[in-house]
Amino acid sequence: MQTYLFYDIETTGLSKSFDQVLQFAAIRTDLNLQELERHEFKIKLNPDVIPAPRALLTHRIGIEAAANGIPEIDAIRQIHALLNEPGTISVGYNTLGFDDEFLRFSFYRNLLPPYSHQFANLCQRMDLYPITVMYHLYKNDIIKWPIIEDRLSLKLENLNRANNFVPGRAHDAMVDVEITLALARRFIQAREIWDYISNYFCKNTDSERFEKLPIQFMLADQEHYHGLMILGKFGAKENYQAPVLYLGESSTYKNQKLWLRLDTDNLPLLTEDSIYDNTWVVRKKLGEPPFILPPAERFLKHLSPKRLELAQANRLWLQQNPVLFQKIIDYHRAFVYPVFANTDIDARLYLNGFWNDEELEFCRRFQRGAPAEKAVMTEKLPNSNLKSLAIRLLGRNYPDHLTPELKQQFDHYLQQLNREENDALIDFKGNKRLTAKLALLEIDAVRTAGGLDLEQQELLTGLENYLKIKWS
Q: What are phi and psi of 257, to 5 degrees?
């Protein structure tokens, strides 16, 4: 039986590689959105995590509360099991933009399969945020739409306030899940539209719809489809949409389809040396946002005549400059993200590739073993990457079971976290891990900016004291 699992997380910060989940909440429903069960976990702060002050001010989970949660490994195992229950469609609000990848890194750091909830045992993922965008554009009489400072806002808390869905404080995980479910229940009243949009999260359906898009023109036997892309990052000012032209598939990244945005002013300014600066290309995977609609009049109604004219002019320019157009295609198909050799092991999910059968078997045995057995297994492990992950897992959750050798290695890792900013550990994008010194500077900046209520002031003081005692 298929079910929806509506979920939300609150975290110590925005770094998927270095921050951690502090609160997880979920409500499982049937496909008619009738509740079946609910779950909530409050998770203990790991000894190696430095919370970001602004994150703490948002969800208001202070140091004292975070010290009393359950160990991360216990919570992440349960979360992994919930998302991997056969037939589960995991869904939240902007989960594919943040929560899902955050959990993927959490699974990886805790030696659990990071991707299985995306495809195994009839499991799949959805995201209510792009669905909300679609309803705003094409079925906007179903809820009230919040206008903040003369502009549409699709923040979950503002949607809740405008529609009085659920009482309670925003950025509490369970409250946000209840809001998301209430929003979905409103949308599903237009069932035909709900089913149509939901099918964009099915790879096969998304592929079939792609193949039905009209061909704008052909170049060197390559068919260049065109359509209307719906993407939240385009923003309310541009009605979350743009006309696009298909360039082909990435040569370096599996299942990435490349779409060139056509309503930009700088495309005719392009030279062979300025492709990166003068093209806006979106990389799309099948079964994931953004959505590509056919360029039918009923969908194009939100594009201004000026944007439509600009898109047409750019199509003609591309046709009239086939050599440059081919260079655009070649550049983006061959594009490779920069790789940082010194990426920290916690951040190497995408760099080390999928675990092989031997590594997966170790992870399974590690999960089944008692803490003392885990330590012995780790000490004997020849695989350096897995061993580093296992040492950190043990140090975070079972420090009393570390052998002298493993404790020495974990302590060395903790010492690395107190480096100066220039020497801080980095993630797979080259972003530096937050240090205690930078967190204290951020606390000062937030206080100087003002506007804090009494609870927030107390939360900052608690964090400041924690950082000075633990990391001084």
A: -95, 135
pLDDT tens digits, residue range 74-127? Answer: 999 999 999 999 999 999 999 999 999 999 999 999 999 999 999 999 999 999
Provide DSSP, 370-435. -HHHHHHHHHH---HHHHHHHHHHHHHH-GGG--HHHHHHHHHHHHHTTS-GGG--B-TTSPBPPP
Residue of 256, 248, 446 lying closest to 329 (CA atoms): 248
Q: Which residue reads 């036997």 in tokens? A: 221
Q: Which of 249, 274, 276, 270 is nearest to 314 (CA)?
A: 270
**CA distance linking residue 197 with residue 131, whole number of Å:** 7
pTM over 0.90: yes
H-helix or E-strand spanning residue 54: helix 53-59
Q: What is the DSSP string of 137-197?
A: HH-TTSS---EETTEE---HHHHHHHHT---S-TT-HHHHHHHHHHHHHHHTTSHHHHHHH
Q: Report the distance separating Cα 80 and Cα 75, nearest Å.
A: 9
